[in-house]
Specification:
- The protein is of the alpha+beta class.
- A three-stranded antiparallel beta sheet has the order 1-4-5, with helices on one face. A two-stranded antiparallel sheet has the order 2-3.
- Strand 4 and strand 5 form a beta hairpin.
- The longest helix has 44 residues.
């Protein structure tokens, strides 16, 4: 009870001490909300940037299509002397090469280059990489979306640096995207 009486006397003080404390608390709350909004905006923009890099890496996979078979409207990655799995492995290697180049990653360890402004020091993990050709369609993606066009699906896990240390060192998020080959070539 003694503490309540002291607090009551402090806030009713005629010199304005209570109002100063309340004002200070309000300023601190508004500052925290401002910092939180800036951090949320930073994370949103970072995820959109990573999605863009991922989309470009997905689209680079199409350069591995067998050009001879493509002339006849057949979409496949393997050549006549390869198995279909070898062609898909080559497509995955192209994806990884372009992802590391686009996102500023070390191509061997997939760790961000130290000068990269968005990503923390943790390596980027490729969670899923799939290619859907005509024979596979229609199909549901791992996210539950219907895929009815020739597509590449990829999902990575990345740690994004936070701007303010009060929110932690970084936020780990999964970023996935489906890149369609819109029209037949």
């Amino acid at each position: 009870m003694n503490i309540l009486k002291m607090a009551d006397r402090f806030f009713k003080d005629r010199q304005g001490n209570g109002n100063a404390v309340i004002g200070l608390i309000i300023v601190l709350m508004i500052s925290m909300i401002f910092f939180l909004l800036v951090e949320i905006g930073h994370l949103y923009i970072s995820v959109q940037h990573i999605k863009n890099d991922l989309d470009f890496a997905n689209m680079a996979v199409w350069k591995e299509l067998n050009q001879d078979q493509l002339a006849y409207g057949i979409y496949q990655f393997h050549n006549e002397y390869e198995t279909p799995q070898q062609g898909l492995n080559r497509a995955r290697e192209t994806f990884m090469q372009y992802l590391s180049r686009n996102a500023g990653l070390n191509p061997f360890s997939f760790k961000p280059i130290p000068t990269h402004p968005l990503l923390a020091d943790d390596p980027v993990q490729i969670i899923d990489f799939r290619v859907y050709l005509k024979d596979d369609l229609p199909v549901l993606s791992p996210e539950g979306k219907t895929i009815d066009k020739i597509s590449v699906y990829s999902r990575i896990r990345v740690k994004i640096k936070t701007l303010f240390s009060m929110f932690g060192e970084g936020v780990v998020t999964d970023v996935g995207i489906i890149s369609n080959l819109e029209d037949d070539l």
